[in-house]
Design goal:
The chain is α+β, with helices and mostly antiparallel strands. It has one helix at residues 16-60, and strands spanning 63-72, 80-87, 94-107, 116-123, 128-130, 134-135, 137-138, 145-149, 152-157, 165-174, 187-197. Strands 1, 3, 7, 8, 9 and 11 form a 6-stranded antiparallel sheet that branches. Strands 2, 4, 5, 6 and 10 form a 5-stranded antiparallel sheet that branches.
Amino acid sequence: MALKKFEKSSVSREVRPWVREVESRIQNLERDSERNNNAGDNANKGQNSTMAQLSEQIRALPIPVGQYQIETGFGLSTTVFVQTTIYVPPGKTKMTLTAIGNVAALDMTSGGAAVAQATIEVNGSDFLWSSPVIPASKDAGASVVNNIITPALGFQQGGLVPGNSFFVALSIFATNGTAFPANSQNYGTLTVNCIFFD
């Protein structure tokens, strides 16, 4: 707001140069203040724009999610599941997923005639992926045959809904489950790594 100028008639002739100087300085200060306000507005606009860009870049960063599960001591008279649940992070609609299983199961009775097998399945509300069924590698002919299985699965999936969940499961089973009784050396591990992005 501009300051009211002095009335010339109210000041003496000797003081008038001083009054003009004061008025001139006040006008200069007002102009400088207005320029600073405009510059500040522009700086704030630039800063807000920069913050919006930074926020967008942070939001666009991929989000990694990893899970590890293990089951031990089981037998294979029924299918054994090693499983985990993964939730889709906010703002993400796509993912890449890699899942790796490791299984060791002792054939105690058949001398290698029975075969342990495993597969990995990923089950979402609107998608389903599965690896091939992998038979065990083993040292057939021994009295106790260790069956080793390493199934794996990898894929990319779109159309995800943030907040929804899906299951990842390692399924372990055998052609003759009675050959694989419960044993402390039997184990199954499942490692899942996801990268979520938009």
